Predict the structure.
Amino acid sequence: MLVAWAGAVWLTRSHVPAVKAVEEGLRALAERRYEHLSVAASDEVRDLVRTFNSSVTLLEEQFRALETLGEIDQMLLGSAELEQMLESILARVQTVTRCHSVGITLRDADAPGRGRSYMAANGLTGLPVSRVELDADMVETLADEKSGLTVTRCEEHRTASCDR
């Protein structure tokens, strides 16, 4: 009986504070507060807290990306000029992706096989645009993808992207 009581006391002291902290953290997440937990606990519960903290980080990034996409949708529906809209979109995409540079290439309707690439990069001012030639395979791929196509590569020292 004494052993059972001692075991219950140990479980209560080692697990309950962490479980309560996770419960509080879940309540905070429901209110879009992304709070990491720091609770002293046994190995099993420490793994739970680590997993919770990793999930909080991922959820925060995903919610920020969704909010950014919502802002981009609002800009697309607004009456902004194309270059102002692209500048805002690229700045938001660069923030969400944490890339050093991002770009959008739009096909020219009046010049088959050609497009305009808009770039935003750290330290770059304005919205530089350059005319580019799209190879036949790329034009065919873009034409076949009616819902749009995004090709992205983000590396530490270089980034490439193509959007339609």
Notes: The chain has two domains: 2-60, 99-163. Residues 99-163 form one domain. Residues 158-164 have pLDDT under 50 and may be disordered. The CA atoms of residues 6 and 12 lie 10 Å apart.
